[in-house]
Hints:
Structural class: alpha+beta
Distance between the termini: 33 Å
Strand order of the largest sheet: 1-2-3
Largest sheet: 3 strands, antiparallel
Strand content: 5-15%
Helix content: 55-70%
Order of helices and strands: EEEHEEHHHHHHHH
Amino acid sequence: GWREDGRNGYAWAFVTDGPEAVRYFEYDQSRGHQVAKRILGDDFQGWLVTDFYSAYNLIFCQHQRCWAHLLRDLHKLKENHAEEAEVVTWAQEVRRLYDDTQVWLEEHPAATSQERQAEYNILFQRVGALGLAYALDYEHPCCVLAKRLMRHQDELFQYLLVPGLPPDNNLAERSLRPLVVLRKISGGSRSDRGTKTRLALASLFSTWLARGLNPFTQCLT
């Protein structure tokens, strides 16, 4: 969230990693999918790594959903139903999908695309089985997360198929932290011009730092 002249809005973050890393921040009063579509453009061909916020479902590209968010929700589910063995066991089985994938990647650092696809197919079936267990049992505590597994069945293990693709959106959340701290101190900005200046400077300085460049010398050039 970001406040401009007392009005609530949002600071959007678009980040990439690697030697040509980018940190781009833009303000909009909307949190709808049209903001991301406008910034990414109609020809975006990459993978979008996000949480499970429903607006992202309307962005038609390749998705990897954030496992950190899913694991936190599984942990909450176990905490809230700690006395129900069936719920705890199910949550542990979903967690095991992620753990097994991490182990497989560590044991197969030079895996071919065919080997990755074969492992992905196995995981895809396991996700489906766990989702089907409770997705239609609307009164069951696992129903909400089971439906999430079914809805995003093909978006949980894209990082297994694509070397270098992260399984979470932690990079974006870490990149936003300085702006979050600044918002808490300043309360936001007072004008449209102030917001644009603040986020443009944040984009420049964060990108330079992400690329290992000295912001002072970059300002001089």
